[in-house]
Amino acid sequence: GATSSSNGQGGELFLGSGAGATGGDVSVQAGEGSSKVGGSVNIEAGAGQTAGGSVSVSSGSSVAGGQSGDLILQSGTATTSGDVRLQSGDTTGASSAGDVLIKVGASVSAAGGSVVLSGGAAKSVGGSVLLKGGESTADDAGGNVVLQAGSGATGNAAVTLQSASGAESIKVSDGDISIATTTPGGKISLTIPLSD
């Protein structure tokens, strides 16, 4: 069982596999439900008076200049698959809620990695991608949605919105905003409501 200390540090728990030419795996799996719901796996850091503990999940590094391991967060396969949620906790006081940061690692000499947000494919209607600022529950402004291109030593990138075929696009770059269509007979419409 776990040990506790009132004035010192709590005991540690280490789960490790053996080393070898190919390292051993560590598998943690909940029990299967033969007729009802399967068991869950809960990983939770300890609570603290000044700050709670952290949970760190990291893939293995390569010590010989190769590729690091993948980190996969995926719900199980089913008739209706479950959700994957990345969410910071709510606050109980006047402080701001925590951020959710999705960032690709930097590259020393090659190109930086990309962040891809894609809706799911389907035989009927494909899934959507929604970027939405937070709502204000008080008499204040809602959050903004900002799309900003990256800067570089030789030039700055652009932000481009384009149709599925790529024939229609809106491109925003430093000093230039272009709205274009390459479809024969295509049109560009700008609608402004009449003032009262």
Mean pLDDT: 88
* Helix-strand sequence: EEE
Derived from helix and strand composition plus strand pairing, the structural class reads little secondary structure
The neighbouring-strand order within the major sheet is: 1-2-3
**Fraction of residues in H or I helices:** under 10%
Q: Provide the low-confidence segments as ranges.
A: none
Number of strands: 3
N- to C-terminal separation?
A: 73 Å
Taking all Cα atoms into account, the compactness measure Rg is: 25 Å
Q: Give the number of helices.
A: 0
Strand residue content: 5-15%
Tell me the overall shape.
Answer: extended
What does the largest sheet look like? 3 strands, antiparallel
Overview of the structural elements:
By secondary structure, the chain is mostly loops. The chain is 0% helix and 8% strand. It is built from no helices and three strands. The protein has a three-stranded antiparallel β-sheet with strand order 1-2-3, with no helix packed on it. A hairpin with a 2-residue loop joins strand 2 and strand 3 (176-181). The chain is extended and about 70 Å long. It starts with 158 loop residues before the first strand and ends in a 15-residue tail after the last strand. The relative contact order is 0.04. The model has no long low-confidence stretch (mean pLDDT 88).
